[in-house]
Amino acid sequence: MKLNEKILHCRKRAGLSQEALAERIGVSRQAISKWETGEASPEISKLPLLAQTFAVTTDWLLDDTAAPAADGTEAAPAQAGAEDHSSVDAARRDAAWPAWVDQLPGALGRLIRRYGWLLGVRIAISGALFTALGFIARLMSSAMNSTMSDMGSGMLGGFGGSGVTFYDASGNAVSPGSLGLSSTDLTALGLGGGSGFGFDVSAMTQPFDILCGFIITLGLVMLAGGALLAWYLKKWGQEHA
User: Fold this and answer.
1) How is domain 3-96 classified at the CATH fold level?
2) In the predicted model, what is the mean pLDDT of the chain?
3) Which of 2, 36, 140, 193 has the lowest tally of Cβ within 10 angstroms?
């Protein structure tokens, strides 16, 4: 009985799906499928995990001459008094991942066990995209500020080189003072000072700028955190292979 046949036999005997076995071993479902069809073989570091999960010995897994006995148990079973299922799971986790992975929230822990250091790469790439999006949005906001300011300056200029002209009843251009309008009155009307009609373009886009800053910060955090996670997990895996 070859290794791929033993993996298939033991998985079915244990009542595990390919997905369930993949999660226990820390590989993809496609890897389990290739192991069972003989297209690929498990890494040496995964054999102890397979043996512990199936409650057999690694020697039995690697011995092509060994076969299941008639009653369904292996001819070379694991040691008597083998660890129970929880102990096997604990040993598997210790061998496959750093201890802190088991302290993470369920979803994040499952993602790390499924994708390994590649999860960090994906997070870093997402962070880079967020950062780029934030900078592009901020540039668009700055361009809009500049355009609106230019429009306001040209259409609604102030009273020094003003685009606003006052006329008397006869249609003659006059100064605001001749109409009895003080600088205070003009300011109250939004026509005071050297800026003409007074509206603050930057105040209009400030909430959008704050959102851009948040996106950029989030992206940088994801980029740095993902890169660090990928580097650490890959290094840990190489040292414990």
Assistant:
1) 434 Repressor (Amino-terminal Domain) (1.10.260)
2) 74
3) 2
